[in-house]
Specification:
Blueprint: H1 4-22, H2 29-38, H3 41-44, E1 48-55, E2 61-68, H4 76-91, H5 95-111, E3 117-118, E4 122-123, H6 125-137, H7 143-147, H8 161-184, H9 189-216, H10 223-235, H11 239-246, E5 257-258
Antiparallel strand pairs: 1-2, 1-5, 3-4
Helix pairs in contact: 1-8, 2-5, 4-5, 4-8, 4-11, 5-8, 6-8, 9-10
Keywords: Membrane, Transmembrane, Transmembrane helix
GO molecular function: hydrolase activity, acting on ester bonds
């Protein structure tokens, strides 16, 4: 993973460019403190991935284990979760936790810009990081200028140092811009709650219907197929739930991660 100095360098330049573009003269001190702490914190205080294993036998049971979340191969779940959490705390006027959450989202996005394998077999992770360190120390211009003419072709990661740096910078810019844009949007809380309750009622009706029909028809064998589907319906989270999280209404923890916040 990139060193803390690189994480902070990319964040600093991206934040400076976004503030200039959006005419943000000053940001809350607590927010900035949390942001710069959060962008390196996952290396010290990691999130954990949750793994479920079903053992079938005489004593069938589900075994749950946890392990550290991999930064360079992490899926978008943690980035999305912490981004939504940043908006949640921002709406609740908790500047420190908002900055921390956004910083963690940026950390994972930056780490994901480094492609760990070349030709699917050769592990080039350490080499790319060393090249990034050298590149960062020799920078004589802003990252924005360096990446201005870089054609990334929608790449999300790279084994090339300059490309990885530019992808990290671009993704950091995107997260920061989206955060400040969404934070300015007005929200109709009453309307939002109404939609949430409708979604919950529909989920409940669907789950009860799926369970009830086999019982009424005396087709109990169908329950083996219906019960997993019903559980899936119960666990399903409509898009409106995530919109609610961004407005400070609720927190939706990811199912497959044990997060720090």
């Amino acid at each position: 993973m990139p060193s803390w100095s690189i994480h902070r360098l990319i964040l600093s330049q991206a934040l400076q460019d976004v503030c200039r573009e959006f005419s943000l003269d000053s940001l809350d001190r607590e927010f900035l403190k949390g942001l710069y702490r959060g962008v390196v914190e996952p290396d010290k205080v990691p999130d954990r991935v949750v793994k479920y294993r079903l053992r079938i036998g005489r004593s069938s049971r589900v075994r749950v284990s946890t392990g550290y979340a991999k930064h360079h191969t992490v899926d978008k779940t943690l980035i999305s979760y912490y981004y939504h959490l940043a908006l949640y705390y921002a709406r609740r006027e908790n500047k420190m936790l908002s900055g921390l959450a956004l910083g963690r989202a940026i950390h994972y996005a930056q780490d994901g810009a480094i492609k760990t394998r070349k030709y699917l077999l050769v592990d080039v992770h350490d080499e790319v990081e060393k090249e990034l360190e050298i590149l960062a120390k020799s920078l004589r211009e802003d990252i924005q200028e360096l990446c201005r003419d870089m054609k990334l072709d929608k790449k999300s990661s790279s084994t090339q140092d300059i490309e990885a740096l530019c992808i990290s910078y671009t993704q950091t810019i995107e997260l920061l811009k989206n955060f400040f844009i969404e934070l300015k949007q007005s929200i109709d809380i009453k309307k939002l709650w109404k939609i949430i309750w409708i979604a919950r009622i529909l989920k409940t009706i669907t789950a009860l219907t799926l369970i009830t029909i086999p019982l009424l028809l005396n087709t109990y064998e169908a329950l083996f197929f219906i019960i997993p589907i019903t559980i899936g319906v119960a666990l399903y989270r409509p898009r409106i739930y995530y919109e609610a999280m961004k407005t400070g209404v609720m927190i939706l923890k990811p199912y497959n991660y044990k997060t720090v916040y």
